[in-house]
Write a structure and sequence with these properties.
The complex is a heterodimer of chains A (242) and B (261). Chain A has 242 residues and is mainly α. Helices cover 79% and strands 0% of the residues of chain A. Chain A has helices at 3-19, 22-29, 31-46, 58-82, 84-92, 97-126, 134-159, 162-181, 197-208, 214-240. Chain B has helices at 19-35, 38-58, 81-108, 110-118, 123-149, 158-182, 185-203, 220-231, 238-260, and strands spanning 63-70, 73-80. The chains are: A mainly alpha (242), B mainly alpha (261).
């Protein structure tokens, strides 16, 4: 079997395994819209609180961004931890470790693209905003999903435990949500470097102006590349390449 | 909880064994998964310390007026913003940790529970054993959260504050167990990632004229108790009673789902 054939087989198997579970289908299709609605409702409650800064359309934009990104993160974590044993068997059968990692990332990418599409349609339905550039807004959501997907893979590769990995991811994600959304005022430069800070800015400029903030785009791409390198290193050090 | 397969209890339990000893045996077996996992134990200490600590440090040192339940009704009280954030983030942290741990505890124990059921254990006994483990995890987590919270906040009534934290954490622990019985792990974690954050931190923000439906959320009374214990001259203790009732309801729901399974 060629490398491309092996990739196709690994991705198809990963997707089939994932989509075979009814709860996973629900997770992809039902839960992101619920999260978006919950964000909308929660932001309505705190919109008039003195001292809190709730930017215009923060609920819809934030909800769309986090619903997509964090789902990709969980997919990354559970894909890597759950598929560790089957992947080792496939490596024994002739698959290469980097091919398995790429297959996992491609699977997460395809699932994230599906979630992005669903979330974006819900966002358009809920929001009064008409995005200045649909394409840029969708790309911003995909970048956010890719960043968190890689974070999930990295956490899964390093910790190799679903519970501990979930806890780490959840605590990172929840802090990131508030820090990058800007609802709770913070006076610290560290806020500018949370993973979703720049995708959030990208989404904001795509929706409001239809432009790409070059600095944010560069930092977001740097995040993706850096996480990809770290993930590859973690998988290699874990011994999958042996 | 490591990803190893659990073994059954070392002592066989027949159906005429007293319930208490069966619960003790199931608790001992289940708790081994926790205390034999140093990474998990470390996370139960490090994560709350990081999460509560970072919020108390990073918010501006402003004063905000909030509406707090007191023994004489609701009062508007000006409080320091870092103190308010600490009082809100502390229960969120407990709810996240205990809720997700509860979900995994129930999910992971499915196979072991089947074997124990064959050995004569009842479903309710096994769920009580899981809750006993959750209580132990809650105690540890609340201890760490309280210690870190005291760096940024000095509650006027620390006993009620700790009780509020424990009730919020255990309520979400029961919700986590319930979610674990109904949904898959990934869907459960996804729900528990957002639910405590949106409910305890945003919906329960102490403002005047809260919507009626906000009061029907599971964390409402625990949050009211925590804020009252932190900032009010006299604690609105009726919230403690209501929070206990909510916890019992959540526990009963989880037990019902377990028996239906």
């Amino acid at each position: 079997m060629t490398s491309v054939g092996r990739q196709r087989a690994a991705v198809a198997t990963g997707l089939r395994t994932f989509l075979r579970e009814p709860t996973n289908l629900g997770l992809l299709v039902v839960l992101p819209p619920i999260v978006l609605l919950a964000f909308d409702l929660s932001m309505d409650v705190v919109a008039d609180v003195p001292g809190l800064d709730v930017p215009s359309a923060a609920a819809e934009l934030g909800g769309a961004l986090f619903a997509t990104a964090f789902l990709a993160g969980l997919l990354g974590l559970f894909q890597v931890v759950g598929a560790a044993d089957p992947d080792r068997r496939l490596i024994v059968c002739g698959f290469r470790p980097w091919e398995m990692l790429l297959a996992r990332v491609l699977t997460i990418g395809l699932a994230s693209a599906l979630v992005t599409g669903i979330v974006y349609v819900i966002f358009l339905t809920l929001s009064d905003l008409t995005p200045a550039s649909h394409a840029l807004a969708i790309v911003s959501l995909l970048v956010a999903a890719l960043i968190y997907g890689l974070i999930g893979v990295l956490i899964g590769a390093v910790l190799n435990r679903e519970l501990v990995g979930s806890l780490v991811l959840v605590f990172l994600a929840d802090y990131d949500a508030f820090a990058s959304l800007g609802v709770i005022p913070m006076d610290h430069t560290a806020v500018d470097y949370v993973p979703l800070s720049h995708p959030s800015n990208l989404l904001d400029s795509a929706v409001h102006d239809g432009t790409v903030a070059t600095a944010d785009a560069l930092i977001a791409v740097t995040y993706v590349v850096g996480l990809a390198v770290l993930t590859l290193a973690a998988v290699t050090l874990r011994g999958d390449s042996s | 909880m490591s990803d190893t397969i659990q073994s059954g209890p070392e002592t066989a339990a027949s159906s005429d064994t007293p319930t208490a000893s069966r619960i003790r045996a199931a608790t001992t077996v289940g708790s081994r998964d926790v205390y034999r996992d140093p990474v998990l134990l470390g996370m139960l200490v490090v994560l709350p310390a990081y999460f509560v600590g970072i919020w108390g440090t990073m918010v501006p040192d402003a004063v905000v007026p909030i509406h707090v339940a007191t023994a004489e009704g609701t009062q508007e009280i000006p409080v320091a913003f870092p103190e308010l954030m600490t009082a809100l983030v502390a229960p969120v942290t407990g709810a996240l940790l205990v809720g997700i741990t509860g979900l995994f505890l129930v999910q992971r124990s499915v196979d072991a529970d089947r074997r124990l059921t064959v050995a004569g254990f009842r479903g309710v006994e096994l769920l009580v054993a899981r809750f006993a483990i959750l209580v132990a995890i809650t105690t540890c987590t609340v201890g760490v959260i309280t210690a870190v919270s005291l760096l940024h906040l000095t509650p006027d009534h620390i006993g009620w504050f700790v009780l509020g934290l424990a009730l919020a954490a255990m309520t979400y622990g029961a919700i986590g167990a319930l979610v674990g019985l109904v949904l898959g792990r990934m869907a459960g974690v996804y729900i528990l990632l957002f639910a405590p954050m949106l409910e305890l931190m945003l919906l329960q923000w102490p403002v005047e004229g809260t919507e009626w439906w906000v009061e029907w959320h599971p964390g409402h009374h625990a949050i009211q108790l925590i804020l009252s214990a932190s900032f009010a001259p006299d604690v609105a203790t009726d919230n403690a009673l209501w929070a206990v009732i909510v916890l019992i309801l959540a526990g009963v729901l989880a037990m019902g789902a377990n028996m239906a399974r």
